[in-house]
Amino acid sequence: MVRHSKTNYKDFYQMIAAIIAIITITVKFLVEVNKRGLWKECIISVAIFAGVNYLSYNLQDASIINPDWFLITLIVSIIAFCTYWGIQFNRGEFNQFTKYQIQQNSMYWQEASWWWGLDGWQFEQEVAKVFITQGYKAHVTKGSGDGGVDIILKNGDYTAIVQCKHYQNPVPPEPIRALWGCKDDFGADEVILVASSGITEGGASFIQNKPNFKVLNLNDIIAMSKMPPVEKVASNSKETTSINQKTTKTGMGRRIDI
């Protein structure tokens, strides 16, 4: 009787461990889906997975197909499901966003109040999407071990590193100097600081003689978002793809480098 009781406890612990593992995997999966805004794909894929197996189970239960077919269908559908989401979660570094994700919030890009409602991570994501609409390939870094670089831009042979500072106050010189120090590490042609409230006089003095260091404030990003979308990446010429070469006009009529 004692052995039987121990066996029951062992089975109970195994069941609890299995439940915890399933919950952990499910939560992690949903967090990744939410981070990438792939809820539509999630609902469709889960519905297909459940529907196929439900149909297979009922056909087997009604003796219409071989009883082993349900197990085969379950294994195949699990492999297909995991393969599909493996591709979704491990896209190339410059394919983080789907076309739907890029367009999802574009209707709000021209509203300064909307931008100020974003946290730092959301701000980086939306800035990257704005660059993508202008023909650049944009990769949002993981935020650690990147030297403070938040976004890497590519356009043909042109490479730029971008740091986002979504602050209410101007950015001081220290992080500006640190960002400039990352230029050679990434083999960048240009360094871009996206500072929502601009930079201090000390920061402006530091970049004064650095033509490959550009500073964009929130108004510049909004102005860029108003430009017509570019469907394809520009030519390989660095002279035509540099951020410095792209200009627009604000409502005041002054020209700004973006």
Describe this structure in words.
This protein is α/β, with parallel strands linked by helices. Helix content is 51%, strand content 13%. A hairpin with a 2-residue loop joins strand 2 (151-155) and strand 3 (158-165). It is elongated. Residues 233-241 and 246-258 have low confidence and may be disordered.
Poorly predicted residue ranges: 233-241, 246-258
> Beta-strand level of the residues, as a percent range?
5-15%
Backbone structural class: alpha/beta
> Secondary-structure element sequence?
HHHHHHEEEHEHEHHEE
Major sheet attributes: 5 strands, mixed
Count of helices? Answer: 10
- Spatial separation of the terminal alpha carbons: 78 Å
Number of strands: 7
Summarize the amount of helix as a percent range.
40-55%
Any idea what the shape is?
Answer: elongated
The order of strands across the largest sheet is 1-2-3-4-5
What Rg do the Cα atoms give?
A: 25 Å
Give the assembly state of these chains: single chain
Average of pLDDT: 84
In short:
With 258 residues, this protein is of the alpha/beta class.
